[in-house]
Amino acid sequence: MGLLTRYTETAPCTVEVVHKFEELSAHVRLDNGATINPGDSVLVHGTPVMAPWGEAVSEQRMATITRASLIERLWTRLTGDMEFMELCEFSFSDETRATGTGGVAA
Fold first, then answer.
1. Position 19 in a domain
2. Total Cβ atoms within 10 A of residue 30
3. pTM metric for this prediction
4. What's the total number of domains in the chain?
């Protein structure tokens, strides 16, 4: 794998879609055991998998995996870590602060 080299591979996959009151989800499992690394992308071929209300659907498809270059992989790790830290910069506290006029602002 080179610094700027990208390559693709195909793999069989299983698409599972659940459309129920207690769960709404969609998952893709690569059936050949391939792992997805930071920066890689997966394109599932075929029409969208739709599950009617109250049902779960599972279909076999083919997927194209585009592997990221070494630079893209490193960039994704770097920026992903920074974006995670951005998520940590919030608070759910219910504090009030005093204003200069003697009133209280919420």
1. yes
2. 15
3. 0.68
4. 1
